Structure formats: C-alpha cells, structure tokens
Hints:
The chain is of the alpha/beta class and 441 residues long. It has helices at residues 9-19, 31-35, 60-66, 101-114, 132-135, 137-144, 156-165, 175-182, 186-189, 207-217, 248-255, 303-309, 348-355, 392-402, 428-432; strands at residues 23-26, 46-49, 58-59, 81-86, 96-100, 122-125, 147-150, 170-173, 197-200, 220-226, 233-236, 260-261, 267-271, 286-291, 298-299, 315-323, 329-334, 339-341, 344-346, 361-371, 375-384, 411-414.
Amino acid sequence: MPINYRLVPADFEYIIQHSGATVVCVHPDYMPAIDSVRTRLVGVNHFVALEGAGFGWIDYEATLAATMPDFTAVEIAETDLITVNYTSGTTARPKGVMITHRNAWVNAMGTLVHHHLSPADRYLWTLPMFHANGWTFTWINTARGMTHVCLRRVEPKLIFDLIRHERITMFCAAPTVLIGIANAPAAMRAGAPRGVRLFTAGAPPAAATIELVERELGWELTHVYGLTETAPLITFCEPLPEHEGLSGSARAEIKARQGVELVSSGELRVVDSEGREVPQDGQTLGEITVRGNVVMRGYYNDPAATAAAMKGGWFHSGDAAVVHSDGYVEIRDRFKDVIISGGENISSVEVEGCLLRHPAVQEVAVVGMPHERWGESPHAFIILRAGASAHEDELKAHIRAHLAHFKTPQWISFVDELPKTATGKVQKYLLRAGHSGISKQ
C-alpha cells in the first residue's frame, strides 16, 4: 500500500489506521512525521527504516543481510488484492482503491500491446510510484526486463542530465512536469537525444505543450487517460496513419484528446444525465463511465462510496467529455470545474489551452468565480515565462481572437506558483477559495 509522501502526519495516521496496516516502511526523510503520530498507530507491529535506523526503527538493510528468509509459495487468485491505493483526499477523507492482480495484469498487458517496449529500453522515474502504482509501470518495466532509473526529486536539469547520461528511452510525466521540461532553457536541453518516448496523463495536457515538446525536443509524446480507480489506464490516444500528414499544431490538437479504449480495458461510454450515450459530434458533454477488466473491486471498507461510484455497474469518473466523429474522447473538464456563465457552459480546459498558446504564458489555471450579473465568470491564474511580460488586456484580446467572447476571463491574476497535489494536479478548489498561499507577482 503505497502512500503519498507529501501528505501531512494526520493523513498518514488516517490511512495507516483505516487500512489496518501492521508494518510501516519509511524513508528517513519522513520518519519524524510518522514519529509524531506513532503512539496513535495502535495496529502497527513493526516500523521499518528503509535507509539507516532510528530510535525504535528496524534497519531494513541490516535486517535483510542478517536474515535468511524461508519463503513459502502462496496461491494467489486473480481476484485477490495486489495493492490498495489511497486517493489524494484533497476535498475529503482519502479513499482506499482496491486493485486486484487481474486489474494490474490486464493494464500491464494492454499497455504493452499499444506501446511497444523491449528489454533494451531504459525507463526514467519522474512519476511517483505511489500514483496509481506509477501508472502500472512498476510492473510493466519489470515484466519486460527493462532498466529502472530512479530519482529522488523532479527537476528539469536532473531529468535532462539523466536522459543523456543514462541513455533513457522512455518516461512518464504529468503535465506539470511536462511544462517544466518544455520550458527549460536551451542550454539545459542541449545535447538531449531525440526520439525519447513519453506518456503524459494526470490532467488534460495543452496542445501547445505537446507541440513544443515534439518540435523542440524531437520526442514522441503519447497521451493516455485513466484514474486510480481504473488501475489506471482506460484510453490511449492511438496515432493513426492519417495523422502523419497533418501539421505539427493539428497533430498536437488530436494528441491532446484522451483517445480510445485500450484493447484490454473494457467498455467506455460517455453518457448524459439519463445514462444515454452522447452523439459523436465533438460538442455534446457527457460523463465518462467505464466497466470491465481494469475497474477496481471497490473502495476499501467504504461500501457507501463504492455504491456511489459504481452506479448501474459502471464506474462514474466525474470527467466531462465529448466524443468526436472518429470516436476519440476529449475531456473538457471535471464536472465540478465546468463554469456556467449566463447559462453558457465554459470549459476551463479550453480556456487554459488557448492561453497557453500565448508566447508569454508558461502555466495557467482557470476557475469559475461568483459574478453579480452572470452567476459565474472565469478567473485565470497565470504564471509567465521567465523574462516574459504580458498585460491583462493583451491576454483577454488573445482569448477573444480564438474563442467566443463569453469565454474570456473576467479576471486575470499573475502568480508565481499554483497550488498542486503531489501528482501535479492543480487544486482548483483552493483557487476558488482565494487560498492565501498563492503568491502573486
């Protein structure tokens, strides 16, 4: 049961207690956090230090070296649990997603069908392994005999250094990491090999970011989509022969879509509030729902949350999407993030993508804020590129030139950083709440 190491001690306490864990293994950097709640972890029998030791902690390496374990084979059914992954708990208590051996195996095999890997591949871990088990690449890489190259911190310079020196051929990156890579200084990118393959997921990536990575670095980017509850991959933006003749920007627009189901994942439908599939018109919003091989067994010790998520036998994602004429799904927003202004639906993802086309904008998040006349109106929080400048009126004019005028943000704030989860997702509820930790330029 991997735990997000960026959580606070109270979260560690809740997850460990709720899961019934009896052994806790911790890196020294996080031992003080566990020690601060240790007296309340009544079900834990062993506290293991993964490096070195501390008062009351078992030294993992020393214990392993001094012990000759007697392993006994255990029969494992494909429906048995392989892992429990707790959701981030940004707006409520974390929920334990129960992933079975079948869930993980099917996801691994499906990914290998769609994305060809070999023992010669060398994989760089920029993705946290606690995040949906590293999108199953913990097992995919091992099953394929690939080399794992791990790093303790995610920094663009370190990533480029390792790609060069460790001859990396493949990695996965959440959009926030992708933005940092794409906007790295030219000197940092110098000498980076072309042809590196990467997956991106975790939040809808902007077409502008995809185009920048492929044009400037010569890397091959694949967009995938899923959730912790789906083990995690559901869709794969499969490149088609007809895409090859498109311009870089047109190809990036398609790659920004979530795509079609992996052959192994099961069934995916985008449905309206009555459960009917939406037309493939690229306009009608519906919710992504899934059933089949990769859907979790349920939430651990939480039947009410399981029943709410698995209505009618389908897992309901909460993602608002459209389906294009070619069957490719495209997320427009989380339903809770759709902005309703004067009766019109505004996709925050669409507005963000448009702003990222402006040469001065490095990162952006758009949320709905109360408006006296329209009920809600978009508010854009923008991080500018280093050395770049832009005025509010300039950015609003940029939006009006590309989108319907009612989608133009009523307010624009220039900030130094955006609040994010450990997996790189912007915490929009904090932006809506006027979070005081957001530093403004």
